[in-house]
Amino acid sequence: MCGITGFIGSGDRGDLEEMIAAIKYRGPDDTGVFLTDGVGLAHARLSVIDLSQQGHQPMFNDDKSVGLIFNGEIYNFKKLRERLVRRGYKFKSNTDTEAIIRLYEDIGEDCFKELDGMFAIGLYDFKQKKLILARDRMGKKPLYWGIFGGTLMFASELKALLKHPLFEKELDLESLNKYLLHEYVPTPRSIFKNVHKLEPATYLVYKNGEVKKTKFWEISYGGGKLNFGESLRLLEEKLEESVKARLVADVPVGVFLSGGLDSSAVAYYAQKNYKGKIKTFSAGFEEKSFDESGYAQEVADFLGTEHNNFLIKARDTLEIILNIEEFIDEPMADASAVPTYLLAKHTRQFVTVALSGDGGDELFAGYPTFQAFEVANVYKKIPAFLRKNFTDKLLRLVPDSEKNFNLGFVLKKFVDAAGDKEKYIHHNWLGSFRREEREKLFKREVWGAIKISNEFEEIDNYWDSISADEIKNKILGLYARTYLMDNVLVKTDRVSMKNSLEVRCPLLDRDFVELANSLPYSFKYKRFTQKYIFKKLMEGKLPKNIVYRKKKGFGMPLAGWLKNELKEFCEETLSEKKIKSQNLFNYEYIEKLKREHFNGKRDHRKKIWTLMVFSLWYEKYMK
């Protein structure tokens, strides 16, 4: 895993060195900088495969007509290499990077279709004088780009672009509006104007000052003809192959183990295919409704792994929160980024690569929102006047608490979004501020400038592009292209790479994803049982109480901490002085949110945290 950056146009070597230095933590083992005739490529290397200097980047072909920088891992590179050797290509290294270069020499831009793995690639073809940027199918690896003053610049993270002298830093108000809705800025937007995230499964060609983008893969659902038993057999085969491929490394490998189904399944196949005891890692909380460490220990004992667990306390998080903008340079309000950062930091003391269970919930309908969706379809059949005058009011009487997934909080979120359109309802449940709340939050003139924009534009585009045999499978596709890609994977990438730790996701393997997507929704969700087929797959391989326990999620006890340990910090971060200096929000509305939360009247943890993250980011990057 690495960091990449570069530009085509104006800039000197010092600019390029500053850009890569800004993300050096992504690759502390080696740095490569190349600049000639306005073509700048820079790379920070975390050595995982072929630790020798033969893996140094930028890497070039024999006649130096192709130069490449690459962040990620290609799991089928040995098969590609064997094919290319048969076709007469000679290799100087054992790296997947060189396989990409040879494949490009062989078949040109079609090479990206052949790559199985996670990647963000910058490739310059000196003969054709074109830059190619490419991103993997699931959007696992980040890649930002923008054109300023006739110079195209790109990087793994925004902070690298900020170092280029032509970069113009301007807050995008439409992106801010969407951040407050989703708790992240959806692809292809970024928080800055004129900066874009390259879409997943896409490559961009920049030539003669023009940009052209091409999709090389699409998410699609249905078409499978396997029965349930055949599907189980093939899922096991593909998952085991995926885990085995991700155990290959020239450095120590471990597994993030929460004790949930997904991470436990990955740990099962990892231990099965690992020589000796594989290392597993978990984190726990003193607040019992958030603590999963006991489940993780149970799985570790059952599988016989070498397990490491550590306890997270409120004081442990404060230093991380104070500097959260250092590793999240675009606002992203998933509070689990903080404990995940601490888990990654602890894990990096023992291994360089960790496998995770990311992706299982999106593939197999694992979130509580899928159950809520079924209930909402019934709830909407209740006459509107009854919902308004009786049901809604009754539900709102249920008190909030500080517990994880507390009933009052969940029911209020359910009522607020239950009447929304099918393609929007899940995002309103997952996010922070609904439209009517953002209208109160923004200053009148700011809201006036953004209210006419389509806040669901990205969802509408994905909805139209996802091919699916069932509406519910199509909703899974939305999760893959929104919440998974722009929240879960961004969180994992930033906190792991800040600690120079590579995280691999076996459940996001191309073959496994395509197989899961081919299955009917009834295999994934059956009679209020989420992840039905995945649970059946792991029956007998894991303790039954692990396979069928309720989802908890890796959050932190934010509601209580905001009232106690983090209250002073919250008041400082969302002070009247700071909010008014931003000239964006109505402080009176924010003050009301704080008072209601501190007094225990309402649970506003998500809204307050979303605002805190933005305020911390604003102070760091916009002042």
Q: What's the short story on this structure?
A:
The protein has 623 residues and is of the alpha+beta class.
Structural commentary:
With 623 residues, this protein is α+β, with helices and mostly antiparallel strands. The chain has 30 helices and 17 strands. It has a six-stranded antiparallel β-sheet. Strands 4-5-6-7-11-12 form a six-stranded antiparallel β-sheet, covered by helices on one side. The chain has a five-stranded parallel β-sheet with strand order 15-14-13-16-17, with helices on both faces. Helix 7 packs antiparallel against helix 22 (510-518). The longest helix is centred in the last third of the chain and has 28 residues, at 471-498. It is globular.
Name its key features:
623 residues; alpha+beta; six-stranded antiparallel β-sheet; 30 helices; 17 strands; 46% helix
